[in-house]
Every structure is written in structure tokens, then in C-alpha cells.
Amino acid sequence: MSQGKVGIIDYGVGNIRSVSNALKRLGASFFVSSKADELRHAERLILPGVGEARSAMESLDRGGLVDWLRTINVPFLGICIGMQILFERSTERDTPCLGIIPGMVTRLDGPQIKVPHMGWNRVFLSREGPLMNGIPSGEYFYFVHSYAASPNEYTIGRTEYGRSFASVVQQSNYYGVQFHVEKSGPVGLRVLQNFVERC
Asked: Would you call 41 a catalytic residue per the annotation?
């Protein structure tokens, strides 16, 4: 790929290796860093996601990344918890988040569902966007999470599990996916490729 380097944000709890391996398979140029001074040279940023909201926000805050992430103008992709912290607040340990997208992240619930939501589920697209280019509505992706945001005007895709929740979002240059692109096979790689090439 001829696109510039992707900066993977290392905040101590992300699934760095799997995302790195996925970018390698795509032939994308990338680096991993926890320092804003280094990450500001990236042409795209990815925040991988494993863990819970408060730990993620505290780690980003210790690295001096929170205020900086609110002001970036390069394409940003948050994966799983990386998407959730784009919202204003999470009820997971009552955590203030980045506030890029309005809304609250709340625990999944509903009759006869298991939490965490783990496994393959469908993403139904409500509008077009570069991140999901060439991916049909209703495609399956791999999820592992206990919390999610309700759909709103920034929702590109939604998924049903106990309730309808936002599984793909976009606000300006900020993109988020609740599923794990790096664990979703060829279709997940297509989303990652779209981010690197089209966003």
C-alpha cells in the first residue's frame, strides 16, 4: 500500500499484536507507540480494544493522550473498547470518556441472552460510508463485549443482541467498530483495508 504510516496507540491493554498482524497481512506501514509526540506523525490512528472503559481511559490519561485525541484531525479507528470510549460516558465503573460522539455506553441486557456477547453476529448498515465500502448489510463479524451504545445519528451499522446497539459509528474523522476487525476473517480485513485506503 502507498498510504502513509498507521499509528497503533499502545495504552497497555489493547490487542496490539492481533491488529499489527492484520495490518502486516494487508501490507500496511505502521508503528506502535504510547507517546503523543510520536503518534502525531501518523497519517491514521488505531486504538485497539480489550478490557474495560475506566482502565482504558486511565491509561490514556497517564500517557497524556486524552486531550490530544479530542483534537486530532487524521482518521481515527477505535476497535471494541476503543469505539466505546468515543462516547460521552460509560456506565462501566461510571467512566467519563472522550465525548467525541454523544451518548452513553451501557451494559447489555435482555431476556435469555448471555453476557458477554461473544461470537459472530450480523451488522446491518443504515447508511453508506468509506469504512464499510463494499461490505453488504447483514454481514457477520466477531464480537466480544459486555457494554454497548444505543444507535444514534452517528451510527452507520447496528447489531441486535438483547437490544439494538451501535456496531459501526462515524463522527467526522473518528470511526468506531464494536466488533473485532482483527478476528473477523476476510470481511474484517476488508474493513481495515477500507480504513487505510479510503478513510
From this structure: no
